[in-house]
Amino acid sequence: MVRAQLAAHAELHPAADQLARTDDLYDHGLTSLASARIMLAVEGELGIEFPERLLGKALFSSIGRLTDACAELVDARSGSVTRGVAS
Length: 87
Hints:
mainly alpha, Non-ribosomal Peptide Synthetase Peptidyl Carrier Protein, Chain A, globular
């Protein structure tokens, strides 16, 4: 899901599906406007809200960081372990 939102809202080079979890998204073309669009799309799709403590450039620095944050918020909301957030 995170990779799909990246593909839909950011012009990354190479594309999101070609990047590793740890690749720096800003080095691959992520902009602050795209990160805001991705945040809103992810929040809407997962039914979560990123708390202020997570908001910042670090959250969007890699697919892994964003995926882990999403999974943590979904798990906290539902009390279960989340699968498939990265797809």
